[in-house]
Amino acid sequence: MRGLARVLSKMGVASRTEATELVASGRVSVNGRVTRDPGAAIDQGSDQIELDGRPVTGAAPVYLAMHKPAGVLTTAHDPEGRPTVYGLLPRGIPSWIFPVGRLDGPTSGLLLFTNDSVAGQALTDPDVGVPKTYEVKLKGELTQADVEALQKGVRLEDGTLTRPAQCRTMPSKEGTTWIELTIREGKNRQVRRMGRAIGHKVVRLTRTRVGPVELGGLEVGKCRMLTAAEVRAIRALARGK
Ligand code: URA
């Protein structure tokens, strides 16, 4: 048995907060009776849930890739009115979807969206360790020892140690270094903090890959649906969890 709002969000109908509001406002009935209790116990095998008088059968799963521009926030609402990723979603998305993890405001690149909460959780779970690849421009010239430190794991300012990562240098102009860095965890602002840990400020950051999905030639600010093969690969990750 699970609470009603939780069941609605697991079915991809709305976020947990939105589902709580839907229930509290009397738009949801269970077995023909309006219930305003978001925590009402639901047996998904037998209880009939309706929203606005229509049966809730679970929204079709949606998986989307966005090329997030720098300067756009990964949040639903910004109190200061700055642009958010939701403003870039195509019209006609059939249901509520959420970003899988987040990218900082100044970071650009691949951001996935889905309403499949199991897949979303697997993609961000550090125990699953889905690789995420970034192209990173750092101030100054990195030594071989810096690269090896990033590969082995560096101590962040809060004392935590990052897990082993893949790192290779790319052609760079004097005074800066470009690297391609693949990490299997997603601590807050991790790549920027890893740069700081080796004494090199990250001045540009773009995510180019998340697990089986590549940014490829997707234009800045645009979205595309994932291919069937990408969706299969993501579901396999979630099953292997
Ligand atoms: N690491 C960061 O520092 N920022 C991001 O947005 C993603 C990874």
Description:
The protein has helices at 4-10, 16-24, 117-124, 144-152, 190-197, 228-239; strands spanning 2-3, 28-30, 33-34, 41-42, 49-51, 54-55, 63-68, 98-99, 108-114, 132-139, 166-170, 176-183, 202-210, 213-214, 223-225. The protein is of the alpha+beta class. The strands form three sheets. Strands 7, 8, 9, 10, 11, 12, 13, 14 and 15 form a nine-stranded mixed sheet that branches. β5 and β6 (54-55) form a beta hairpin. The chain starts with a strand and ends with a helix. The structure holds uracil.
Q: Which ligands are bound?
A: uracil
- Average of per-residue pLDDT values: 93
Largest sheet descriptor: 9 strands, mixed
Q: What percentage of the residues does DSSP assign to strands (E)? A: 25-35%
**Which residues form runs of ≥5 with pLDDT under 50?**
none
Radius of gyration: 21 Å
Shape summary? elongated
Ends distance: 22 Å
Give a short summary of the structure:
This protein is an alpha+beta fold and 241 residues long.
SSE arrangement:
Blueprint: E1 2-3, H1 4-10, H2 16-24, E2 28-30, E3 33-34, E4 41-42, E5 49-51, E6 54-55, E7 63-68, E8 98-99, E9 108-114, H3 117-124, E10 132-139, H4 144-152, E11 166-170, E12 176-183, H5 190-197, E13 202-210, E14 213-214, E15 223-225, H6 228-239
Parallel strand pairs: 9-13
Antiparallel strand pairs: 1-4, 2-3, 2-5, 5-6, 7-9, 7-15, 8-9, 10-12, 10-13, 11-12, 13-14
Helix pairs in contact: 1-2, 3-6
Bound molecules: uracil (URA).
